[in-house]
Design goal:
Layout (H helix, E strand, L loop, with lengths): L1 H16 L1 H6 L2 E12 L3 H5 L4 E11 L5 E13 L3 E13 L2 E8 L2 E2 L2 E2 L4 E12 L2 E12 L14 E11 L1
Antiparallel strand pairs: 1-2, 1-10, 2-3, 3-4, 4-5, 4-6, 5-8, 6-7, 8-9, 9-10
Length: 169
């Protein structure tokens, strides 16, 4: 009970001091589409399609300066032929209108988390249109194929293209 009271007092103190208001500046939320294309012969190796489309939900925190932090969740439709996959991911981006950065994510497919994450490099253009931001980007994903039995190392690296519309500061 004492711990709950201390947490409530700390939260009230932060809220009244304006620290939480300052932390919300530069917050953007939105959604978009993401196209993934594997580079290897994944179709020949496993019967999977080398193309996938994802619906993307995105939250971006862009405080003053040149660094941004982004968290995304993708729903990849028909990944691995007939299975859907959920992919949470995190990004650290450098720049504003033109930007580049790196990220990490992991897939959840067929009731299980994959054993290893993917790593990615990303470059894009974020066009501010008032409180609306249009973000178009490309990524190169490095995915370890040991998570699937019938796919070799080259098969899961992918080039992706995406577009996200975000609302916020």
């Amino acid at each position: 009970m004492k711990r709950i009271a201390l947490i409530a007092i700390a939260a009230a103190t932060l809220a009244s001091s304006g620290i939480l208001d300052a932390a919300q500046c530069g917050s953007r939320i939105g959604g978009g589409l993401h196209y993934l294309r594997t580079l290897g012969d994944i179709k020949d190796a496993s019967g999977w399609d080398e193309n996938a489309v994802a619906i993307l939900g995105s939250y971006q925190y862009a405080p003053p300066g040149i660094l941004s932090i982004e968290g995304d969740v993708e729903w990849v439709i028909d990944y691995a032929g007939d299975k859907d996959m959920i992919e949470p991911q995190a990004w650290l981006l450098l720049g504003r209108m033109l930007y580049a950065g790196g990220g990490i994510g992991i897939g959840y497919i067929d009731g299980d988390w994959l054993d290893e994450p993917f790593y990615a490099l990303r470059a894009g253009v974020d066009l501010p249109l008032g409180s609306l931001h249009l973000d178009a980007f490309a990524t190169y994903r490095f995915q370890n194929s040991k998570v699937f039995d019938d796919v070799n190392q080259e098969d899961l690296d992918a080039i992706t293209f995406g577009a996200v519309v975000r609302f916020g500061d």
